[in-house]
Write a structure and sequence with these properties.
With about 210 residues, the protein is an alpha/beta fold. The chain is built from four helices and 15 strands. A hairpin with a 4-residue loop joins strand 14 and strand 15. One of its GO terms (molecular function) is acyltransferase activity.
Length: about 210
């Protein structure tokens, strides 16, 4: 193919200016995004980084998103900086208010209920206005329905919706999911992916088995 999209350009399709390959626009080195993953937002797809909130350097957590993910507008990744200390009488953070209250005891990192890195696998579809909480892991091939709040891990190739987000069904049976996780088509070179568009996109699953 002579006119394939360039994974190193922000806007691959001039006919769809709302679609952005976001690895090319984020500045924070703790946001790690794979090739061909896009954010689609008519209000500024290149502003994806604004949708990663409470992301403080002193905590050091990371947002890791794999390849070929499709992320719809209004997503919010809530990072570990949103957490308050919970072992005292109050969770109220007096120390952040300022003025004389700034001398109140601030928690050290080890005293906060930190959840670790937030990780989204490869080939994940995230619907509009989904909120993803700190430390969640979403498996390869999963689908997250619109307006969901994801507060716990979602397994590979699950369809999950709601608040709190729950798995409603698996996309395929266990044997075929295991096959796909071993196949890892997203790691193929782009020429091989292009040769196998039909097998990857068709509802006839025998095509991918017979490659």
């Amino acid at each position: 193919m002579n006119n394939r999209p360039n994974p190193n350009e922000a806007f691959p399709n001039p006919k769809i200016p709302s679609l952005c390959f976001i690895k090319n626009v984020v500045k924070n080195p703790r946001i790690i995004i794979g090739d061909y993953t896009y954010y689609d937002d008519v209000d500024g797809a290149d502003q994806f980084e604004k949708h990663v909130t409470h992301f403080y350097d002193f905590i050091g957590d990371r947002l890791i998103i794999g390849k070929f993910c499709a992320i719809a507008k209004g997503v919010e990744f809530v990072m570990n900086g949103a957490n308050h200390r919970m072992d005292g009488v109050t969770t109220y953070p007096f120390y952040v208010i300022g003025g004389d209250w700034g001398s109140a005891i601030a928690p050290v990192k080890d005293e906060l209920p930190l959840k670790g890195d937030t990780v989204v696998g490869n080939d994940v579809w995230i619907g509009q206005h989904v909120t993803i909480m700190p430390g969640v892991h979403i498996g390869d091939g999963a689908i997250i329905g619109a307006n969901s709040v994801v507060a716990s891990d979602i397994p590979p190739y699950a369809v999950a919706v709601g608040n709190p987000c729950r798995v409603v069904r698996m996309r395929f049976d266990d044997e075929f999911i295991a096959f796909l996780l071993q196949l890892k088509w997203w790691d193929w070179d782009i020429e091989k992916i292009e040769r196998n568009f039909k097998a990857l996109s068709s509802g006839d699953l025998s095509l991918i088995r017979n490659l």
